[in-house]
């Protein structure tokens, strides 16, 4: 029988489990990540239960171990071709942009000339200027900020310039304007991946961050899979921080989320909508709440929560729907530092007309976006190789 090669999907759901790596890449030692394994770091915790992903083939992937006899989906181990292990670099590569160099990070804070220029642009002083936990920085600098009006500027292991301010001290519109000034300022060697507004509220001793966070990302350096899908007349619906990661480029509609549960709910709600194209979801809690904070129990429980949700999502997929589950980098909560970890990521593909297949090890995250484009009938010049023919019955 001749293999069907012209299958087209009406809807593709591409879900990124932010930071869910499955083992160190061969060059991990160059990044200080030798032996890192996010899945390996959580799979033995009592809270870990991913029976639905197991059935799809998660544990049948190269190097994972413990697979089922007849997985229901196609599965692969995917290597990162870009240099780096950043959220933006990982998502860009999924959509066909391979980055030759990592985005800049600042282990000792930003250079004096950067801070002085920022102070001149905003007319405000600067506090902190160090890598810091977002919750700890407002605890330690919040009182001085409220007293002086100086902005709390800090970074992390990621390529970020973060500005925290109390909403009663610095109105949101001013904080957002300061972030826009910083985004325009940070170019060339200091072109960080994201400038992030981090507003907070409350009284001394009980400051809390609000949901009014806003990210100002670098624009992709060229057109991505999202642009080509949009240009093909399809919907590109971004859930979570996807719109921020791509600076709105190639997006037709977006919805912010307050965390994993909200992201899963908004993704499931789209099953009831008659759209045609891509739903691209990022579930950030794995990375933000558990990976960076080295919380093995929280990470394991969050994976179990997603897996339970997945058990209700899979039966609702229609004839023209295809689901992709992958990640953008690792962040092993059992590792020795709080940075992302340079790892392979999993890929699970499921839908009617998609066969169970061991796709081996893919050379680039970009293969995912190239295959999504092929499924949606979009054509364009992006990195990556489509593996669509290997998915078809």
Task: Outline the structure in words.
The chain has an eight-stranded mixed sheet with strand order 10-9-11-1-12-13-2-14, sandwiched between helices. Strands 3, 4, 5, 6, 7 and 8 form a six-stranded mixed sheet that branches. The termini are close together. It folds into two domains: 11-103 and 220-391, Alkaline Phosphatase, subunit A (3-Layer(aba) Sandwich), CATH 3.40.720.10; 112-217, 2-Layer Sandwich (Alpha-Beta Plaits), CATH 3.30.70.1250. It has 393 residues and is α/β, with parallel strands linked by helices. It contains 13 helices and 14 strands. Strand 5 (160-166), helix 6 (172-185) and strand 6 form a beta-alpha-beta unit.
Q: What would the CATH topology of the largest domain be? A: Alkaline Phosphatase, subunit A
Looking at CATH, the homologous superfamily of the largest domain is Alkaline Phosphatase, subunit A
| CATH architecture type of the largest domain | 3-Layer(aba) Sandwich
Radius of gyration: 21 Å
β-strand number: 14
Structural class: alpha/beta
pLDDT averaged over residues:
96
Report the order of strands and helices. EHHEHHEHEEHEEEHEHEHEHHEEEHH
C-alpha end-to-end distance: 10 Å
Query: Into which percent range does the helicity of residues fall?
Result: 25-40%
Q: CATH class of the largest domain, please?
A: Alpha Beta
Strand content: 15-25%
Low-confidence stretches at least 5 residues in length (pLDDT < 50)? none
Whole-number tally of structural domains: 2
Enumerate how many helices there are, as a single number: 13
Q: Sheet with the most strands?
A: 8 strands, mixed
- Spatial strand order of the main sheet: 10-9-11-1-12-13-2-14
Query: In one word, what is the shape?
Result: globular
